């Protein structure tokens, strides 16, 4: 991987995290949007939401 | 230190390279990019040999750094409802599906505006929705074949056999356009509170890009020559010297005077065909031929 080439003195661009596994943040993102745990579990049980094993 | 786009949240339904490269540029600057993937995942996960983890191929790793992954089956109504709740917290929604495909998922501009009226909504399409190719799908090679580069490559090689340059020129160039168009709309939104619909079509973007220098004499009349002669000169190439290849690019008067002084042929520039910048530009193939011939017997140093 190649670093962002530009230099910015106050707000430097950077590689802060690696690319995510499929669905790595599924649960956290829905929870942050106010979706309850029971609804998230129901989506997962129905196969409509995927998280890494 | 935080990036310049810290606090900007982008819901990203794009996959392959174009959209992911565009949102990578925004994520590198600190934007929160939520990559929404279907259960089978972005196909680029499976291109090339992964290091250790299956589904984490080299190009996937490159363009999806700094992102979060939300994996949903959007054909499921409850999953779509969940996505719309996430969209309601976002600043931008970007996708690269065909117009009819995104409408089919119920995620067109009007659908998204209902849950987030000031959204910046960006669609990267193969072809402008209103244009003659509007409903066709597109991949990089299909765009390269149409926008003129494949033809110019054959003209430059001298055999008129069309060919592709060995890079995904259209995906990456349109990815850049996609990123700055999104950013422009976000700046307008920050100043006025207004969201908007943004279309970034690959073919039209690449045609506009290529024509910067290649529109050439067609600038002045419909039957004018297309193609900047200097770039199509078969004599424009790295030049062979006694001890290796060398890039030599005399461009202005001073450069050419220095060049012909060094090779001991200063009289060439007295010839009216070569004496001015404009005259040389009309005879550029001759100029490069002379460079080629005069440098073969010289060492690079």
Describe the structure.
The complex is a heterodimer of chains A (53) and B (301). Chain A has a domain at 20-53. Chain A is mostly helical and 53 residues long. Chain A has helices spanning 26-32, 37-45, and one strand spanning 49-50. Chain B is built from 13 helices and eight strands. The longest helix of chain B is centred in the middle third of the chain and has 24 residues, at 169-192. The mean pLDDT of chain B is 95. By secondary structure, chain B is α/β, with parallel strands linked by helices. In chain B, strand 2 (32-37), helix 2 and strand 3 form a beta-alpha-beta unit. Chain B has helices spanning 18-28, 58-63, 77-87, 99-104, 109-115, 140-147, 149-157, 169-192, 202-214, 229-232, 253-262, 277-282, 284-295, and strands at 9-12, 32-37, 67-72, 92-95, 120-125, 196-201, 239-241, 244-246. The A-B interface holds A 1-2, 4, 8, 10-26, 28-30, 32-35, 39, 42-43, 46-51 and B 1-4, 6, 28-30, 34-35, 37, 39, 41, 45, 53, 55-56, 60-73, 76, 78-79, 82, 85-86, 88-89.
Q: Ranges of chain B with pLDDT <50 over ≥5 residues? A: none
Strand content of chain B is: 5-15%
Overall pLDDT score of chain B: 95
Distance between the termini of chain B: 45 Å
How much helical structure, as a percent, in the residues of chain B? 40-55%
Number of strands of chain B: 8
Mean pLDDT of chain A: 97
* Inertia-based shape of chain A: elongated
Head-to-tail CA distance between termini of chain A: 26 Å
Radius of gyration of chain B: 25 Å
Helix run count of chain A: 2
How are the strands ordered across the major sheet of chain B?
Answer: 3-2-1-4-5-6
């Amino acid at each position: 991987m190649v670093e962002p080439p530009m230099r910015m003195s106050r707000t430097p661009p950077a590689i802060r995290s690696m690319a995510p596994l499929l669905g790595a943040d599924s649960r956290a993102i829905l929870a942050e949007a106010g979706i309850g745990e029971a609804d998230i579990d129901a989506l997962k049980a129905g196969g409509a939401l995927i998280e890494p094993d | 230190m935080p990036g310049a786009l810290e606090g900007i949240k982008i819901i990203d339904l794009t996959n392959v390279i174009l959209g992911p490269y565009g949102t990578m540029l925004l994520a590198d600057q600190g934007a929160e990019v939520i990559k929404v993937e279907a259960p089978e995942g972005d196909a680029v996960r499976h291109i090339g040999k992964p290091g250790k983890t299956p589904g984490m191929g080299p190009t996937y790793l490159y363009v999806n750094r700094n992102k979060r992954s939300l994996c949903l089956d959007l054909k499921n109504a409850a999953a779509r409802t969940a996505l719309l709740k996430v969209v309601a917290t976002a600043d931008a929604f970007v996708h690269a599906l065909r117009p009819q495909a995104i409408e089919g998922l119920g995620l067109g501009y009007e659908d998204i505006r209902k849950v987030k009226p000031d959204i910046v909504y960006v669609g990267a399409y193969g072809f402008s929705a209103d244009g003659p190719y509007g409903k066709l799908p597109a991949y990089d090679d299909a765009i390269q074949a149409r926008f003129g580069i494949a033809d110019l490559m054959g003209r430059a090689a001298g055999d008129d056999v069309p060919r592709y340059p060995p890079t995904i020129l259209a995906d990456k160039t349109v990815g850049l356009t996609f990123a700055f168009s999104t950013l422009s709309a976000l700046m307008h939104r920050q100043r006025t509170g207004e969201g908007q619909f943004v279309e970034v079509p690959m073919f039209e973007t690449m045609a506009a890009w290529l024509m910067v220098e290649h529109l050439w004499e067609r600038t002045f009349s419909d039957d004018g020559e297309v193609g900047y002669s200097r770039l199509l000169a078969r004599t424009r190439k790295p030049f062979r010297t006694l001890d290796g290849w060398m890039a030599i690019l005399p461009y202005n008067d001073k450069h050419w005077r220095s060049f012909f002084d060094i090779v001991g042929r200063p009289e060439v520039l007295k010839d009216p065909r070569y004496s001015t910048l404009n005259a040389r530009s009309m005879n550029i193939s001759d100029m490069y031929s002379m460079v080629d011939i005069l440098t073969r017997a010289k060492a690079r140093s």
